[in-house]
Amino acid sequence: MQRRLANAAELPSISALESDLVEARSKVRAIFRQVLSAH
Questions:
Q1: Domain extents for the chain?
Q2: Superkingdom of this entry's organism (predicted)?
Q3: In angstroms, what CA-CA distances link 27 with 9, 10, 16?
Q4: Which of 6, 7, 19, 28 is 20 to 30 A from 37 via CA?
């Protein structure tokens, strides 16, 4: 557990990357919905 906490403290940008991944996933899902609805 201590190692994980240390790594989290050293990499504060992970949360930002995760939020970017969530946004990218939502955008991809929206695009797929548009393509499926078009066909």
A1: 2-38
A2: Bacteria
A3: 29, 29, 17
A4: 19
